[in-house]
Amino acid sequence: MKRTCYFIAFLLFSCCTIFAQPDGPGVPPSTIVGLKMAFVTRQLALTNEEAQKFWPVYYSYSGELRRTKQGNKGDVLAMEESMLNVRKKYKTEFKKILTTDERVNKALTVDRDFMNVVRKEIQQRQGAKMRGPKQMKPKEQD
Predict the structure, then answer these.
(1) Would 12 be classed as within a structural domain?
(2) What is the pLDDT of residue 132?
(3) Would you say residue 61 lies in a domain?
(4) What's the number of domains the chain is made of?
(5) How far apart are CA 75 and CA 67, in angstroms?
(6) Residue 54 falls inside a structural domain
């Protein structure tokens, strides 16, 4: 009986550790989504009430932009025109929630701002990896 309990415990522990391992190098996507939400919330200074209204509209906006990009890959001009139309459509939706033009314009560009921050962080980390650990300079002889 003890052997069976130990075996089951070992099996459960093994399964938990296998599923706890990340799929690949880097940060898990759920962490990036959380960081993006925090970044957007901070950049737009969203209140709790605004956030509850904003996020469903924002996710719809992001999804429509993604579909537009995928649907017009062959024609750059058509893709840009379609993306502009999506932005115009959602500008009025964001205006209902965010009230000021400044915040609405920020909402329409916050994706780019977040990606710039992420890109900069990746470059810094890669640069630190390339340089390796800091080496101490030898003291000069007197």
Answers:
(1) no
(2) 66
(3) yes
(4) 1
(5) 14
(6) yes
Asked whether 104 and 94 are in contact (CB, 8 A), the reply is: yes
46: three-class secondary structure by DSSP: coil
> Is 35 inside a domain boundary?
no
- Give the separation between CA 4 and CA 82, rounded to whole angstroms: 62
Contact 107, 44 (CB under 8 A): yes
Q: Does the predicted model carry a pTM greater than 0.90? A: no
CB contact at 8 A, 61 and 79: no
Residues 96, 141: Cα–Cα separation, whole Å: 70
CA atoms within 13 Å, Cβ hemisphere of 91: 11
Measured distance CA(138)–CA(142) in Å, rounded: 12
Residue span of the structural domain in which 81 resides: 46-128
Q: Which amino acid is at 122?
A: I
Given a contact cutoff of 8 angstroms between Cβ atoms, the answer to whether 102 and 43 are in contact is no
In which residue are the tokens 């522990």 written? 13
**CA-only gyration radius of the chain, Å:** 24
Name the more confident of 85 and 25.
85
pLDDT in tens, 49-103: 999 999 999 999 999 999 998 988 888 999 999 999 999 999 999 999 999 999 9
